[in-house]
Description:
A: 391 residues, mainly alpha, 14 helices
Amino acid sequence: xxxKMDQIFVLLQHWLVAFLPLSLQPVASVLLAxxxxxxxxxxLFALTTVFERKGLAxxxxxxxxxxxxxFGIMQPIADGIKSLTKEDIVPSIANAPVHFLAPVVLVVAxxxxxxxxxxxxxxxxxxxxxxxxFYFAMGASTEVxxxxxxxxxxxxxxxxxxxxxxxxxxxxxxVLLLSSVSVVMIAGSLSLTxxxxxxxxxxxxxxxWYIFTPWGLVGFIMYAIAAxxxxxxxxxxxxxxxxxxxxxxxxEYSGFKFALFFLGEYLxxxxxxxxxxxxxxxxxxxxxxxxxxxxxxxxxFSKLMMSIFVFIWMRGTLPRLRQDQLxxxxxxxxxxxxxxxxxxxxxxxxxxxxxxxxxxxxxxLIAAYILMGRVGMYKEHFGPRRYxxxx
Amino acid sequence: MYLFLEDSLLGEGxxxxxxxxxxxxxxxxxxxxxxxTVQYPEEREAPAENARVFPxxxxxxxxxxAGLRCVxxxxxxxxxxxxxxxxxxxxxxxxxxxxxxxxxxTRFDIDISVCMSCQxxxxxxxxxxxxxxxxxxxxxxDRFGGLLLDRKELxxxxxxxxxxxxxxAAEVDARLAEEKAKADAKAKATADAAAAKAAMxxxxxxxxxxxxxxxx
Lengths: 391, 216
């Protein structure tokens, strides 16, 4: 029974596919899985928008949307209808084909990332040997769509927003990749299912998640920072800084194209949280050995939603950074620490089992954190200027 | 050295901030007094006494037609920065609150889609005839006609004025009463003088009467 619940979607897929002739079955099973992904994540997006607004409202001691349906839960439907019926304006001097393609490219590229994410035991669309590589290739192509949008709009705000977005995404893409590399070093595989499998054991009741190791914790924090920047979320939401750029690269988008951008951004957030869960939080495995009876897909999605909650929480807390602060942070703090983390991971790998590696690795990382926090982020404090000749 | 002198670690501020927002997040569910917003159509807060939205015309007696304070002097029309007031002066006259014969507006329109609520009309009005309303629920389905308020729609009684701006209205009433008393006293003095003149010999009375006529 427990196994059945765990595999319910896989069994459902097999049962449905069995109605078709044998020659069509492989195509049909893939199509079914694609349809499931294309339905589930936009639905999650719809729910997240309303929960985000309600969560932010609570952080600011307000109630939040409560008009459409009970507790405002139908708000996304109203928003969706509104964006569908709104006029779609394309600037007369815009490059119309590129302007049209940009949101499509974004959503498609983001959806491709979901193909390799294991969302439960045996629940992965394509179990690639180089799944992680595929994921990052797809993630990097979202930058193209951002730049397409900014460039084709022929609007200075759009272009500036796109420039910022690309600069930011490329800077943090490096960190994102390097922090994942440490996981690959330990797991010894680029396949996301193998990475999850490597974390699914238990010592006593505690799981073997990579976040519970010194290098894993640092890697996860760096990954989380890079993921926030990569998805243009607050405090790294400079590309759409409304106070200076109107809305950034999607300034000239309205109606459903704008909704597609919005969808793409949230989907990117889901997929990057899903990848973070897979790499550091044990994917679909249960947090304690006695909780393994709960289906794996529930664990995956609850971890995903927890990450989303942290994203919202950060958005409600932190103010937006300045461009130079953003770049300094990426290149002077996050990147060096991630590189060091790679070394520490190698050390961890070759020191063998035992408590010694815990002590050594933790000490190196904590010392580096304190040192870099003080030195790397140190800024000259200018006091009142004094002139010797005036004294 | 700054390395050891700094009192906080990198990221400590972020954690403090996160704790603060978490406290607000959880607190807003348990204590209702934290919630500062008003659920508008169901709950309302009384507007502040100094609130102002769009102008209205004050009338004194029960009759909005006869009691209108406005004498169609058109100062507000001329002073209005966005030119949203339109006044047509009457041909005939009727007595105002001090009993003096005055013109009155046959038409007094304010286009509230143009009005910018600057209150300049109120400040320039010498007759305390135009004041600011606190009514803000003026949405209408007719974009042009519905937002062009005519004399009838603009008229509000002095009691209403007292209701929305009690302090200001009391001051205005005091001032008007003083003016009326002064005017009454003056009228009485003139009447007395006229009576005294009437008792005097005819040529002098005639001269006084012509003087009176020229002065009028």
